[in-house]
C-alpha cells in the first residue's frame, strides 16, 4: 500500500533528490535489500536518514540499541553494524507479515545472533524490558509516540539518545487541525502533543532534523522521576 506521507517531502524536492541519490550507497547485501525495498515500494527509512544513522552511530558507538517498529528489519540490520562484537539490537513489532519478512532479512544477513525480535504490542512489551539502552529508535504508529515516551525515557540511559522518525506529518504538523483530513487528526493532535512534551521537558535536550518526514533527536540529561 502506498504511504502518501513518504511522497510529500518537507524540503525542496531538488534537495531531497540530491540527498537520496548523491550520498554514498549502503554496501553489500544490506544495500541490495535497501534497493529491493525501494523498488517494491516497501516503507523503510529513506536514504538520507540511512546516511545520517550511519554517521551518527559511528560517532556514539552504542552497545545496546532498542527499536520500536521493525518493519522488514532493514533499519535494525543497519544499526546492528555499529554495536560492536559485544553489542546487541532489540526490536519490537506486532505485525505478522512484517515479522516474517524481518526474520528473512536477519537470516539473509547472518544477524540472528545480533538482533532479537520481540513479537507483540509495544505498549505491552516495553514495560517488560530493563535496559538501559544507549540508543532508541522509534518508528512505529505515530499516534502512539506520546504513549511510548515514558517507557522509552525509563529505558534510555542518562546521556543516551532517543531518535524518533516521521514527526512532521508530511509537512502538515503546523497546519490548523481543521485543515487536516479527519482520518489524520488523531495523529496530528498526538504528534503535536509529543513534540510539545519533549521540546519543553526540563530534563531533555532535543533537536529537529528535516530528514525524510522529519526526525527529532532527544537526549536524556538526568534521571527522570516523574
TrEMBL record:
* Gene3D superfamilies in UniProt: Vaccinia Virus protein VP39
Please list the reactions this protein catalyses: 5-hydroxyuridine(34) in tRNA + S-adenosyl-L-methionine = 5-methoxyuridine(34) in tRNA + S-adenosyl-L-homocysteine + H(+)
Name the positions where S-adenosyl-L-methionine binds: 45, 75, 93, 139
- Tell me, which GO biological process terms does this entry list? tRNA methylation
Give the record's keywords alphabetically: Methyltransferase, S-adenosyl-L-methionine, Transferase, tRNA processing
Q: Name one GO molecular function term.
A: O-methyltransferase activity
Coiled-coil annotated spans: none
Give the Enzyme Commission number: 2.1.1.-
User: What biological function has been recorded for the protein in this entry?
Assistant: Catalyzes the methylation of 5-hydroxyuridine (ho5U) to form 5-methoxyuridine (mo5U) at position 34 in tRNAs.
Tell me, how does this one assemble? Homodimer.
The UniProt entry's sequence similarity note says: Belongs to the class I-like SAM-binding methyltransferase superfamily. Cation-dependent O-methyltransferase family.
Q: What is this protein called?
A: tRNA 5-hydroxyuridine methyltransferase
What's the source species for this entry? Enterococcus ureasiticus
What is the gene called? trmR
Amino acid at each position: 500500500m502506498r504511504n502518501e506521507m513518504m511522497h510529500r517531502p518537507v524540503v525542496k524536492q531538488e534537495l531531497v533528490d540530491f540527498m537520496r541519490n548523491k550520498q554514498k550507497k549502503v554496501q553489500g547485501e544490506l544495500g541490495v535489500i535497501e534497493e529491493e525495498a525501494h523498488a517494491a515500494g516497501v516503507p523503510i527509512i529513506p536514504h538520507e536518514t540511512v546516511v545520517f544513522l550511519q554517521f551518527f552511530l559511528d560517532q556514539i558507538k552504542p552497545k545496546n540499541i532498542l527499536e520500536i517498529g521493525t518493519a522488514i528489519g532493514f533499519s535494525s540490520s543497519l544499526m546492528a553494524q555499529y554495536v560492536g562484537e559485544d553489542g546487541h539490537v532489540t526490536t519490537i513489532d506486532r505485525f505478522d507479515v512484517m515479522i516474517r519478512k524481518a526474520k528473512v532479512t536477519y537470516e539473509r544477513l547472518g544477524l540472528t545472533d545480533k538482533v532479537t525480535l520481540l513479537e507483540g504490542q509495544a505498549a505491552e512489551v516495553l514495560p517488560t524490558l530493563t535496559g538501559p539502552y544507549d540508543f532508541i529508535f522509534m518508528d512505529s504508529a505515530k499516534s502512539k509516540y506520546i504513549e511510548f515516551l515514558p517507557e522509552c525515557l525509563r529505558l534510555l540511559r542518562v546521556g543516551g539518545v532517543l531518535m524518533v522518525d516521521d514527526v512532521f506529518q508530511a509537512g502538515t504538523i503546523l497546519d490548523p487541525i481543521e485543515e487536516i483530513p479527519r482520518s489524520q487528526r488523531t495523529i496530528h493532535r498526538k504528534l503535536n502533543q509529543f513534540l510539545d512534551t519533549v521540546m519543553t521537558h526540563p530534563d531533555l535536550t532535543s533537536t529537529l532534523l528535516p530528514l525524510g518526514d522529519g526526525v527529532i533527536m532527544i537526549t536524556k540529561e538526568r534521571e527522570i522521576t516523574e
